[in-house]
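pls design
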């Protein structure tokens, strides 16, 4: 199979299809993932080709979905459970943090739980309440969970396949506002390790760290800054637990400045951990305080206000200006 240009959603579909083909123990389960093909059509055609016993339409019960996935994993399966929207995950929160995340340690390493939980997250689609949230920080604080988020179709394909092959529970966050963007996907390529960050644009004056939906915003900011004679380096974090601090550190040692951007609220967000760690590691290299740009500490607003809530190009460039002013 040669490289082809796929939308983010089709790349994820291809990854699920490849995993189902390569391992008969892989299962896909969730609300409307079968006959409908998922509300975003990520699982389109999979039940038709692999049957109802491997692509399973579940009741509308997130706690039951994750509880069932845990039981299947204990019996040797590799379930890929879909939570239909980010804000729907909270009924399953207890199962995730008290059972799924703890079982390996509780069993002194004798039990593995290779469960992937796919969660579309973030804004930009004009949805109603509980459909546009960014709950990543709630899960990164939980030991025993891995958490990754691709920002482009190629990473979507490879990172989902790698997550399914992992013997540990992985929360796989999909930036739903990017589902329709297209990019080259090479199923025969060699992917980066699942938990490594990547410099997606080199620069010399300031590092911008982003992940998921804000990587494109960071690249837009770098292009705009270039027109003013400023050189921004953009790092795609890719993994939120664990975090590849070494890649970020090397970048900041080169540039001397760091701005972290994410859609989630700035208060107690992932950016706070990145800022603290890099301040500790790069204190003598920093030419300015590490700055954070993100959502407000408020419930996600109605659709007509989300452009004001989300950290867009102007808000990120304002952070860049403040960092470069030191």
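designed seq:
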């Amino acid at each position: 199979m040669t490289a082809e240009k796929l939308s983010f959603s089709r790349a994820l579909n291809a990854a699920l299809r490849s995993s189902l083909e390569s391992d008969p123990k892989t299962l896909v389960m969730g609300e409307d993932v079968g006959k409908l093909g998922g509300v975003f059509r990520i699982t389109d055609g999979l039940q038709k080709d692999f049957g109802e016993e491997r692509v399973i339409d579940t009741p509308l019960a997130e706690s039951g979905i994750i509880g069932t996935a845990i039981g299947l994993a204990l019996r040797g399966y590799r379930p890929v459970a879909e939570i239909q929207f980010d804000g729907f995950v909270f009924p399953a929160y207890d199962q995730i943090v008290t059972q799924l995340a703890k079982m390996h340690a509780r069993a002194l390493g004798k039990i593995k739980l290779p469960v992937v939980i796919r969660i579309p997250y973030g804004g930009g689609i004009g949805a109603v309440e509980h459909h546009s949230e960014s709950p990543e920080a709630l899960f990164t604080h939980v030991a025993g969970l891995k958490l990754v988020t691709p920002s482009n179709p190629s990473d979507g394909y490879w990172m989902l396949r790698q997550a399914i092959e992992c013997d540990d529970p992985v929360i796989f966050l999909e930036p739903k506002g990017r589902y329709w963007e297209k990019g080259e996907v090479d199923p025969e390529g060699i992917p980066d390790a699942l938990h490594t960050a990547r410099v997606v644009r080199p620069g010399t004056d300031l590092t911008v760290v982003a992940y998921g939906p804000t990587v494109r915003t960071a690249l837009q900011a770098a292009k705009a800054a270039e027109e003013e004679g400023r050189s921004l380096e953009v790092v795609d974090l890719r993994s939120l637990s664990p975090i590849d601090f070494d890649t970020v550190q090397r970048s900041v040692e080169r540039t001397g400045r760091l701005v972290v951007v994410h859609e989630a609220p700035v208060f107690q967000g992932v950016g706070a951990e990145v800022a603290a760690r890099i301040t500790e590691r790069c204190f003598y290299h920093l030419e300015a305080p590490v700055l954070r740009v993100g959502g407000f500490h408020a419930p996600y607003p109605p659709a007509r206000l989300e452009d004001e809530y989300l950290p867009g190009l102007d808000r990120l460039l304002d952070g860049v200006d403040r960092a470069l002013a030191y």
